Structures are given as structure tokens and as C-alpha cells.
Amino acid sequence: MATNDAFDTMDIRVAYRDVDMQGQMHNAAYLTLAEQALVDFWSQRPTVESEPAFAMKRMECVFHKPLHYDDIARLRVEIDKIGMQTVGFAVLIERDGTLAARVEIVWTAYDRDKGEEARLPEALRDWLYDFLP
């Protein structure tokens, strides 16, 4: 896997373990790759005091064109929406500039001590706004 200059994009080569007998990438592999791209993106966030914990609330994938064994895919993380307690991500998976899949992921912030939903810290919200399309 190669990471581009921008930390919101990464390139991957479709591995043999991720394809079926027709050479197409398994559906679940798209979700795994999207989560990996999101973890890489999230690791670049600014440090905020008393950051809440985050849990996935929803994940959805829309398939456009299949990826195949040995394809190079570019994954790009975008911020889809920012709520008071949630953040929505869109991970676009492309091959040769053509959209292969769009994975939408929604995370909810939780207070680490109380286990209840919590507000997104302002510093984190400000950072996320920079990635709105």
C-alpha cells in the first residue's frame, strides 16, 4: 500500500486473498479497505483535550464497477456531514479515475466515562470542516 502526499488519499493493490473465483474483489473487502483508509485519515487529526470515544453507527456501500485482482485502487476520504455528536465520512474507491465504490460511514461520539453520546469538540469540528467537499 502506498500513501500519497495528502493523508486523505491512499493507493492499494487488490490482493489475491480479496478476490473470488472470477477475479473480482469480495464485497466485504471494500468495507475493510474503507475502514483502513479512514483509520489512516483519523490518525492525522489534531490532539484535543478530553476527546470522546467513537463508535460506528452505520456503514453502507454502493458498488459501481468491480475491482479485480492486481488493480490499483485509490481511496479518498471525504467528510460527508458533521453533526453535533456524529461525523459522516465518504470513502471513494476509484480505479483509473472511475468510481468503483462509495462507502459511507457514520461515527458517533461517546463520553468515555459515562458511555453516553457526547458533543464533538470544537477543535475537532473545525479540523473536519476543512475536508467538506
UniProtKB/TrEMBL annotation:
Keywords recorded for this protein, A-Z: Hydrolase
Entry-linked Pfam families: 4HBT_2
One function term, GO molecular function aspect: fatty acyl-CoA hydrolase activity
Superkingdom in the source lineage: Bacteria
InterPro entries: 4-hydroxybenzoyl-CoA_TE (IPR050563), HotDog_dom_sf (IPR029069)
Family: Belongs to the 4-hydroxybenzoyl-CoA thioesterase family.
PANTHER family, A to Z: 4-HYDROXYBENZOYL-COA THIOESTERASE FAMILY MEMBER, NOVEL THIOESTERASE SUPERFAMILY DOMAIN AND SAPOSIN A-TYPE DOMAIN CONTAINING PROTEIN (0610012H03RIK)
Protein name, as recorded: Acyl-CoA thioesterase
